[in-house]
Every structure is written in structure tokens, then in C-alpha cells.
UniProtKB/TrEMBL annotation:
The lineage of its organism: Bacteria, Bacillati, Actinomycetota, Actinomycetes, Glycomycetales. It comes from the Bacteria. One of its GO terms (biological process) is xyloglucan metabolic process. This is Exo-alpha-sialidase.
Amino acid sequence: MAYLVLIGTRKGLFTATSDDRVHWSVDGPAKLDDDGFTAVAEIFAIAADPATGRVLVGASTFFGPSIWRSDDAAATWSEPENAPMAFPQDLPYRPLDYSDTAGIDQPDAEQTNTVKKIWQLAFGPGRRVWAGVEPTSLWTSDDGGQTFEFNQALWDHPEHTTWASGGAGPAVHTIVPDPGDPATLTIAMSSGGIYQTHDDGKTWNGITKGITVDYGPDPEPESGHCIHKVTRDAAGTLFAQSHGPAYRATRPDGGWTDISANLPTNFGFAMVAHPTQPGTVMAWPVGESMDRTPPGHRISAWRTTDGGDTWEPWGTGLPEEPYFGTVMRDGACTDYAADPGWYFGTRCGDVWASDDTGQWHLVAAHLPDVLCVRAMETP
């Protein structure tokens, strides 16, 4: 077997291949189309399906955001003839209300209904694809990503006016399918919270009970939380990294439990669950000061095997000297192999890989700022 890592950066898509997760061959930036604009595009979203070899990439180019597709594990690419998504023309502009959200400036009303960035792509059953978009919205495709339908129910949610802009912009940035129930989907947004549907997006319920904030007037608001990432383990338990503590929820409607006691900080972005071992999750803590660097300026991965009751630094082989690269919310992943591999990239442009024994190996160094990483096992 071989392994493919797809690396989205500020300046294009890079790929890395290996037969052993130790020795890597790196290529890129990839030209997803003939005009070459995508070779320097910002790549915020990648979805990879090991079962089929399908890959989707959301890129923001000179001409705006679009989605490129590969059916052969990133060997060749195609783009829809027309823009894959656009807000309905009769959708009223909705300037958001930021009056209760720590004083963040409100975007211009005329820009609210313009698709700015594609922040998340996720495969569902059949030809289903979900897309999380800025401004805060969810889109669904049933033709493999050629065309997308706007989810009106989420947009019309009565709490929408409390959804603010995180540091990177107001967006649905996390999509977590339920493998056992195609009608159930969990999404997270910054800054909006965590929402869940059990009827394929017809209705949405906020599920942030128990998540507290220290950046607003209400320490336990019903909505408007700045959530950085959500992941789902093999037993269906959800884990969340907020703009503050990390949390666990076995029944999200029953509330979340703070699991940050043994982590070095109460702050971070990326969080990835083990594909087969319930309760096993990886996190990459970030210092709570505004410099947003690893605690003590030492890059490290932290792992729990008991659902977050305890954590410990995991793995060897990472730099021991001062290191200032942060792992962003989509900058880490697993390849979902039977013997799973773990991957993460940093804002210093380095990418690392490990098998489940915890020995880290450098995949690539000195790339542009790494925004997202996806990996899969290939034949």
C-alpha cells in the first residue's frame, strides 16, 4: 500500500506520497487547471475518500472560490463549467448583529450574501458532498460536487443574528457526518456554535450546553460560541476544541464536559479522533497568549485514550529546539487506514507524519503557511 497526503497552503496545493510513512516524495504547487491561477491559490478545504480515491479541493483564486475534483487520487483534475454555488438572487441581505459579541466590527451588509471562501468539504453517502462556506452557510451537492444547493433552514435559524465573525471570518468550518445515519450531521462555526440536524438539514438544533466563554458578557450563552473544531470518535462521542477549553459530549443535547485539566493550555485549534479506538483523540495545544504559538515554543502532539480524562504528550521525533508554528483547525488528520497514520502541518510550512506507534517523520519542510491537511491510503 501507499499513502497520499494532500496539503493545502496559502500558495497552492502540494502532495506527498510514501510507501512507508517515513520517506516522502513531495510535489507542487499543483496546477489544478490550465490557467495556472490555482498553483498560487489559497487552499482552505480538502476532502479525500480512501474508498474511491476521490478528492475535492476548495480554492480561492483571482476569479473567486471554486471546487476542483479528482477521481484518481489527485493525478488529474476537473472543475465545474459554472460556479458550483451562489446564493439565491432573491435572498434578502442580512447584516449580522454584533452588538453582544465582544465588539467585533460588522461586515458591510452588501457583502453578506457573497460566497467568499469554501472552508470545509465532506463526503457523504453516494455522490453526496457537503460544503461549509463563508459567510456562515451550509451547502449540499448530490452530483459529486458539480452543483450545490443552499441550506435555507440553517440560514433562517432564529439564532443566526448572534453568529459573529471569528478571527478568520464568519463561516461553517467543520462538518461531521454520522456514518450510521446519513440524515444526521453536526456542524461548527466561528463564531456561532455547534448545531446538529437529524432530518438531513431540514431543522437544526444548537448543542452547546455546558460550553462556557470568557470573551463575552454572558459566560454561558445559548449561541454565538467561538468553536474551533469538532471531531467524532468510533463510538459516536463528540469532542470539541473551543476558544478556550476542550470538551466531550456523549449526548450533545445533554451537555458537554470540560476535558482540559491535563492539557498544557486551555486553547488550541486542531482535534482529530482515532478512526477505530473509542476515546482516543489527538490535539495540538496552542499558547493562550495572543502570539498563538505552541506552549513553551515546543511543538507537540497530545493524546488521550480515555475520552479526555487524561492527556499526555505523544510521540517522538518532533523538533526539540524552539518552534513557533501553530497547527490550524484543519491542519491535522488521520488516513483512516487499518493501521492508521497521523498527520499535521504548521504555519511554518512543515508537515509531519506518524504511524500509530508515535514516531514522527518529516513529510515536507518550508512550504507556504499550511491551512489544511488530508491523507488517505492508496492501492
